[in-house]
Design a protein that fits this description.
Elements: H1 2-43, H2 53-71
């Protein structure tokens, strides 16, 4: 009788282990999907637009300097 009780308890414990293992394997894709969604939101975020003002001002100064140096020769 005791052996039947022990074997019944072992089967109940193993059933929980199998269930937890299945749950763990199901959680892996769920976590991966959540991580992929968060990465997608982060990758598609709107960034502040940057003006080309400083770059164009620098290029204009460069052109003026080049025109002055070639016009004197």
């Amino acid at each position: 009788m005791v052996n039947l009780l022990i074997s019944w308890l072992r089967s109940r414990v193993r059933g929980k282990e199998v269930g937890m293992a299945a749950l763990a394997w199901l959680l892996i894709p769920l976590v991966a999907a959540i991580a992929a969604g968060l990465w997608g939101v982060w990758a598609n975020r709107t960034r502040g637009t940057r003006s080309d003002g400083p770059e164009l001002d620098g290029y204009a100064r460069f052109r003026e300097a080049m025109e002055r140096s070639t016009s004197g020769t």
